[in-house]
Amino acid sequence: MSFFLKISKGIDWFNEWVGVAMYWLCLAMSLIAAYNAIVRWVGGIFKWQLASNTFIELQWYLFGIMFLLGASYVLKRNGHVRIDLLFGKYSPRTQSWVDVIGFFLAFAPFYGFMTYTTFHFAQKSWQTMEMSPDPGGLPFYPIKTIIPIAFALLLVQGISELIKRIAHLMGNEEYAPGHFQSSREEL
């Protein structure tokens, strides 16, 4: 089991790194959004065309990247919404069993299917070198490539969470649900 826990720690480390990168991407997106707002305002006053589709599309590209790639980081931090009507009342061992069964019945099939499907979606975009129809717009194929990468990262982080739940079921209390996740105060 220690080999798999090392893999889990490596996955967690990588997705933690991705999450930190998304913080910086959020800053870049915010600066571009501020720039877009300022040039539109100044342009409106003086009747100048200062805004460009490039910066507007770049802003939503960065938002999309942040949202998509940040999802695996949020899963690692146990930040996704759960409906805890029953789950929160279960013992940690029962919670681990629910997570393991849920991984095989819903999580892995869904994210495996989405990774596969969106890979072909991105591949088609690359084949046609798909571009924005707007003047000065950006190419679509790089952003469409992020979609299968994001689903794959979620699937891999789900595997990391599965390893931790199995370790807990094998008697390692360090990996009990809620025990190893970061607290809200850390964020």
Overall morphology: elongated
State the major sheet.
none
Evaluate the radius of gyration: 21 Å
Question: Which range does the strand content fall in?
Answer: under 5%
Number of strands: 0
**Total tally of structural domains:** 1
How large is the count of helical segments? 5
Structural class: mainly alpha
**Please, what is the average pLDDT?**
89
Which regions have little confidence, pLDDT < 50, spanning 5+ residues? Answer: 182-187
In N-to-C order, the SSE pattern is HHHHH
Helix-residue proportion: over 70%
Alpha-carbon distance between the termini?
Answer: 30 Å
Short characterization:
It is built from five helices and no strands.
Can you tell me about this structure?
The chain has 187 residues and is mainly alpha-helical. It has five helices and no strands. Helix 4 (92-128) packs antiparallel against helix 5. The longest helix has 45 residues, at 2-46. 21% of the residues are buried.
List keywords for this structure.
single chain; 187 residues; mainly alpha; 5 helices; 74% helix; elongated
List the helices and strands and how they pair.
Layout: H1 2-46, H2 53-76, H3 84-87, H4 92-128, H5 141-169
Helix pairs in contact: 1-2, 1-5, 2-5, 4-5
